[in-house]
Amino acid sequence: MTRKFAITIPCLALGSLLIGAPPAPLHGGSPYGVCSHITRDGFGYRDESCRRIAAAGIGAVRSDVDWKRCQPAKDSPFDFSFYDAAVESAEAAGLRFLPILMRPPKWASPVWEHLEEWGAFVEAFVRRYGERCPDIEIMNETNLRVFWGSEPDAEKYCDVLKAAYAAAKRADPRVRVMLGGLNGVPLPYVRRILERGGAGAFDAICVHPYTHPYPPEPALERDLEALRGLLAEFGAGEKPVVVTELGWPTHQANVEGLPLMRTLLAAARPGQASWRCVYATTTPVPDGQESPVAAAIAGALPPGSTCEELHGDALRARLAAGGIDAVVYPFDETFPADTSTPCSTSCATAGCSWTSAECRCGIHARRRHPGHSRSIRAARTPSRCAAGCASRSTRTGSTPRSRAKGGPSPPQPRSRRATGATPPASGRGASRKKTSSALGTNSSPCSS
């Protein structure tokens, strides 16, 4: 699952990470594995891939097991023959096979409305493979729309996890059920699972702590320690944390959409000689790291333009200080406000029905405000948002419906992209980063 905007090294730690200690193996042997997708062997490389993985001293291979392939119709019996071949290839090379149980058939979608049938699938899989697959991962990156199938919902995923756990343990109490590999280390998402009683529904938790475009070392231990602290709050601090995807970026930033951004800004302010931009990144910027995205944005604008990449408190402080001409948002619309502190009041943007109760930490990742367009737009003035939601206000400012008093409506080109979030993949899909932009003012983009 290649990460957008990064080239990932395929060697992935599949062992439980104990901070300051070597990773422990899942069930004996090497603690390392590769996410090779041998169950999607469209080119006939499965056997050779397994042999080469084993020759590198790696002990496990991780791949998808799609429910829809095993039971395409509701009244059809389970057919695991396709996956038998993949498991046999792994075993022949001396590898453990780590299955990701995922992708329900259309007749059982959404999966949280078909928990009994989902449980039957999980139970049938565990009964069939038993000790051959001693660990199972329950879905993949459910905190991303592209994998969950709709707006990510930790509470619904918790119900799916509970059903899978009960079914797996009925089939074999020894199997280790792992909370599916989450994109990044999404603490708010995990907290909601735990608050719903999910701590007893998994034996280990899997994460994909990508930090692209930066190397993972500065943030890896910090993020995993924070996750362990959160688990400890709910009595699950001793459960293993397993990294089932991780990459080290080796790319040069290629930011798609820069010509459109440049055109929109020029149309909004034809006389602007240079621009002071802020790129509102969704991940912390490591100390001392230079942002390749910010450099690409600044380089696409007239000479003398600048761009800062900021996150969290640093972003909010910079916005409050003013002196910004444009705010550039990530293409996938994962806005910093979606993982920031709760809003104290409702949004004041015309036509927006979001309330403070809905703006809880992270719950609306990649969800637009009702009535707001997802098109890339430049605006003469930002929308105004209620106090207490500085970074959220920049989001509403990215797609305002109203125009500045007495001024003409800004140009509003049609978006070229489909509605949705990150394409296939916390390393997935295309390797180019897209952006959308919103024009700010010389004062703070958020005011009460």
Observed structural traits:
disordered N terminus, 5-stranded mixed sheet, 448 residues, TIM Barrel, single chain, disordered C terminus
Structure description:
This protein is of the alpha/beta class and 448 residues long. It has 2 domains: 11-243, Alpha-Beta Barrel (TIM Barrel), CATH 3.20.20; 255-439, no CATH class. 29% of the residues lie in helices and 15% in strands. It has 12 helices and 13 strands. The chain has helices spanning 46-55, 67-70, 81-92, 115-129, 145-148, 154-171, 187-195, 217-233, 258-268, 292-300, 312-321, 390-398; strands at residues 11-13, 32-35, 60-66, 96-102, 135-140, 176-183, 204-208, 241-243, 255-256, 276-280, 306-310, 326-330, 433-439. The protein has an 8-stranded mixed β-sheet. Helix 4 links the parallel strand 4 and strand 5. Helix 6 packs across helix 7 (187-195). The longest helix is centred in the middle third of the chain and has 18 residues, at 154-171. It is elongated. The two termini are 43 Å apart. Mean pLDDT is 74; it is low at 1-25 and 338-448.
Give the helix/strand layout.
Blueprint: E1 11-13, E2 32-35, H1 46-55, E3 60-66, H2 67-70, H3 81-92, E4 96-102, H4 115-129, E5 135-140, H5 145-148, H6 154-171, E6 176-183, H7 187-195, E7 204-208, H8 217-233, E8 241-243, E9 255-256, H9 258-268, E10 276-280, H10 292-300, E11 306-310, H11 312-321, E12 326-330, H12 390-398, E13 433-439
Parallel strand pairs: 2-3, 3-4, 4-5, 5-6, 6-7, 7-8, 9-13, 10-11, 10-12
Antiparallel strand pairs: 1-2, 12-13
